Amino acid sequence: MELDFFFQQLITGLSNGMIIALIAIGYTMVYGIIELINFAHGDLFMLGAFLALTVVGAFGLDAWAGGGTWMGVLLLLACSAVFCAGLNWTIERVAYRPLRASGKLSLLVSAIGASFILVNLGLFWGGLPMEVFAGGVAAAAPKDFPPLVPNTNLLGADSLVQLTPKDLLVFGVTLPLMLGLTWIVTRTRLGKAMRATAQNPIAARLMGIDTDRVIGATFLIGGALGGFASVIYALYNNTISFQMGYRAGMDAFTAAVLGGIGSMPGAVAGALVIGLVRAMSDGYLETRWTNTIVFGILVLILIFRPSGLLGSRAKEKV
User: Fold this and answer.
1) In which residue ranges of the chain is pLDDT below 70?
2) CATH number of the domain to which 255 belongs
3) How far is it, in rounded angstroms, from Cα 173 to Cα 265?
4) 238 alpha carbon, distance to own chain's centre
5) Separation CA 91–CA 220 (nearest Å)
6) Most buried in the list 12, 171, 255, 260, measured by CB within 10 Å?
7) Is 107 helix (H, G, I), strand (E, B) or coil?
8) Residue pLDDT, tens place only, 300-318
9) Nearest to 91, CA basis, from 39, 53, 32
């Protein structure tokens, strides 16, 4: 019985950790190149979920059955990824790029401002007069996301451990995305340009690399990952709200710092640690202690290894 419960919490922790990892990679990619903590990234993730719910209502995806359900899921993934990628690129182009030479503080304030704008956009979006938004009568209330993916237990009705198609969806989407991103960063010209820009943007520019284009591509990729994560989160939890970006953003940022901000493998490792710690704390202790334990671990890691779990020790650029 105890072993079954442990495996159940393990599955839950890994699934949530993989979702956090997709968001955390967006944070760490941007920080690795321009050393900006993009606080608007979590709220971008929130808007991706709201767009997915809008698409569900507009096309009636909740009425699709059989193979059409999975076609609907692919449609949601594509729409949210394109939307979040374009929105993230636009924010960088309009709000961040003009201030890039003004110093890190100006960029940080700009990111906080962009976050507030996206949160309020989500609040207004929640009042959309559609059935999936409850007619728009309670804009600030959480929204139910239709259970497009079945919640049946793949291990059998008698099994005490629940492994559902939702869990497989999380791994089936996130693992190929991470492998694809790793290939882009390590094997393509764009990835080489990203690494050069992250190491020394001035030298990269002198070598003929269009650093503005590289930074824009980074925001596009990070935004797309946030869009994928928003759909997976909505399908996995079946509830979204205009404030969900704050919680998800805090978990993702903490994961990036815990693993070593600027390191993509570190972001994934940190996200899995947070997902597992949250699941085990919720299961074996009280939920009210979960945040204390997560941030307590973060503090201990940063005390004894300031660069994070997989971060490299590097001198601060001046």
Assistant:
1) 1, 65-67, 312-318
2) 1.10.3470
3) 17
4) 16
5) 10
6) 255
7) helix
8) 888 988 888 887 665 544 4
9) 39
Question: How do residues 256-285 score in pLDDT, each as one tens digit?
Answer: 999 988 888 999 999 999 999 999 999 998
Closest CA to 220 of 44, 87, 79, 22: 87
pLDDT of residue 318: 41
Residues 195 and 185: beta-carbon distance below 8 Å: yes
Residues in the chain: 318
SS3 128: coil
Coil, strand or helix at 240: strand
Residue 152 has what DSSP assignment? -
Q: What is the model's pLDDT at position 286? A: 83
Q: What is the pLDDT of residue 43?
A: 96
Tell me if 229 sits within 8 A of 16, measured CB to CB: no
The verdict on residue 171 lying in a domain is yes
**Total number of domains constituting the chain:** 1
Domain that holds residue 284: 2-150+167-304
Question: 103-138: b or e for each residue (b if 16 or more CB lie within 10 Å)?
Answer: eeeebeebbeebbeebbebbeebbbbeeebbbeeee
Nearest residue to 302 (alpha-carbon basis) of 234, 294, 105, 264:
294
Q: Would you say the pTM of this structure is higher than 0.90?
A: yes
3-state secondary structure of 29: helix
Does residue 244 sit within a domain?
yes
Say which DSSP state 315 is in: P
E strand residue ranges, 1-93: none
Spatial distance between the Cα atoms of 245 and 251, rounded to a whole number of angstroms: 10
Domain membership of residue 51 (yes or no) is yes
Report the alpha-carbon distance of residue 191 to residue 197 in Å, rounded: 10
Q: Is residue 160 part of a domain?
A: no
